[in-house]
Amino acid sequence: MTTSDLDLFFDPSRCFIGGEWVLANGQETLPLENPSTGEILAHIPRGRAADIDAAVVAAPAAHHGEWGRMPAAERGRILARIGHKVLERVDDLARLEALDVGKPLRQARADALALARYMEFYGGAADKLMGETIPYQAGYTVYTLREPHGVTGHIIPWNYPMQVIGRSVGGALCMGNAAVLKPAEEACLTAIAFAAIAEEAGLPRGALNVVPGLGEEAGAALSVHPGVNHLSFTGSVGVGMLVQQAAARNVVPVTLELGGKSPQLVFADADLQRALPFLVNAGIQNAGQTCSAASRILVQRPVYEAVLERLAERYRALEVGPAMADLDVGPLVSARQHEIVSGFLADLGGARIVARGHVADSVPAGGHYFAPALVAGADPGNRLAQDEIFGPVQVVIPFDDEADAVRIANGTDYGLVAGIWTADGARQMRLARAIRSGQVFINNYGAGGGVELPFGGTGRSGHGREKGLEALYGFSVLKTVAAWHG
Ligand code: NAD
Question: 3-258: what fold?
Answer without folding.
Answer: Aldehyde Dehydrogenase; Chain A, domain 1 (3.40.605)
